[in-house]
Prior knowledge:
binds (2S,3S,4S,5R)-3,4,5-trihydroxy-6-oxo-oxane-2-carboxylic acid; alpha/beta; 30% strand; single chain; globular; 8-stranded parallel barrel
Amino acid sequence: MKSIFLLISLLTVIPCVRAQQTDLIANTEGRKTISLDGQWQTIIDPYETGYYDYRYEPSASGSFKNAKPKNKSVLIEYDFDTSGSLKVPGDWNTQEERLLFYEGTIWHKKSFDYQRNANTRLFIYFGAANYLADVYLNGEKIGRHEGGFTPFNFEITKLVRDTGNFLIVKVDNKRRRDAVPTLITDWWNYGGLTRQVKLVETPATFVQDYFIQLQKGSRDRIAGWVKLNGDKLNQRLTIRIPEAKISKSFTTDANGSAEINFNADLTLWSPDNPKLYEVIIEAETDRLQDQIGFRSIETRGTEILLNGRPIFLRGVCIHEEAPFRGGRAYSREDAMTLLGWAKELGANFVRLAHYPHNEFMVREADRLGIMVWSEIPVYWTILWENSATLENAGNQLREMIARDKNRAAVIIWSMANETPLGEARLSFLRNLIERARNLDPSRLISAAMERHYLADKTTQMIDDPLGAYVDVFGCNEYVGWYDGLPEKIDRVEWKMKYQKPLVMTEFGAEAPYGNHGDALTRWTEEYQENVYQHQVRMLKRIPFLRGTCPWILMDFRSPRRPLTGIQDFHNRKGLISDHGEKKKAFYVMQNYYDELKRAAR
Ligand code: GCB
């Protein structure tokens, strides 16, 4: 009886969800969009008073109603109009001093007018919200999204009004043991609407998504699919690449899908020549354009082959941290600064750690000719046995691939970083690998893993069982920093159980810019430089090494780094400071990459 009551009361209080999260609209850049960026009104709500009632039940009259007292006697204990505001896109932590360490809920509200044309549909698109977002339009719930680094959208065609719409988003960045990432990370838990928010207008039946890339193993055959969404699903569809004189027609089936497959004589994308083609997808009811590069990526034994030729990945790791101003990076300018520094270092490859970065990073990498490793935040000690955690990770993987699968720059999907050995972890990660290969059979799969010493204490063995399932083995090692002093690096030998390419995905040492001393004094630029000098000598001795990614391009904020006067809540392993100053180690890596470039010519 009690449970029936509970059910009835829940049914009456929980606002019904009228809209559903729709599959991602790939390529919002090619669409008519209306930006909702700018100041949003906000309410800080650490106890989620605007969401739960005092019995901790979801309330029917929460802050999402944006209620106003109808007369002077009415009690309403919140008011967006008087509570302050925050800039979107933007993390809240760096916008107000009192929010620097804040982990909890903030309500965001934006009003807009929108005159919808008949025969168009409207979606609300979020580049990312960290971590959990509950979205309401005009007081009605339209959906929820979990995961802080991937895009999502909801259709609002039937809910939007000509004038006076109010969009309210509850963003919650509380960490949870069962979440992805989990409780501990070595980066700042920046909360908020950290990427662009926009309205996306489409025709009634539109090109929702497409995969247009070279077929695995081929350099002259395009293979993929196009998917329509709407009620006129059966259409004739043409793919045109005017510069290559290609025009191929297909028919979509009853589900709106068409497989595509045709020969194409193309100039292939590479770091030396990052050629992008204008690709036009023309359906009967829609037309969409994208800039797409074509290249092949595969492995043969311990080689990585780009367009059939062995390549060494001269990489560097990057966090999505804004140069100069701090906080989350979100703009094209941020991407150009970070990738510009990577280029200056001599990099042809970046490891975007430890979660999918904003779309500007990937699109700029495409234009600049920088290959990309893209990763989901399956980091350290995830709850391997929890099926909801696996679904969450799988969803973040799906959303990452959905957004970036047409970017030639992306060559590697990474499943995880430094995860502990064990059966449950192995089956969790194998499950993700299988999903990734189904979603995108064309790219390489990897993960950043660990290594251990053999009995002689100087032979590093790479034999993580996950190695059997990846294409490229990523290894993090900090010899000379967490593991001995710099001279130890010279004594280390490397062995690998797998006949696969190895990328050293992390190594480094920590020093604030301008802190000087001798080469054995921790936290000095000289110590960091010393580690890099020894590392480069060691790396040159590893026969199956096919790439290096020093940790990290630029200093970044981390709650795990409290050392006053040195770290001040920053991980200072950057080759460049967060103010753009290059440390001595930068030049050691730059020289190494110069040498590698010359040798490759
Ligand atoms: C690691 C982690 C990275 C840390 C880094 C460090 O192994 O993958 O997220 O920031 O070490 O500086 O300790």
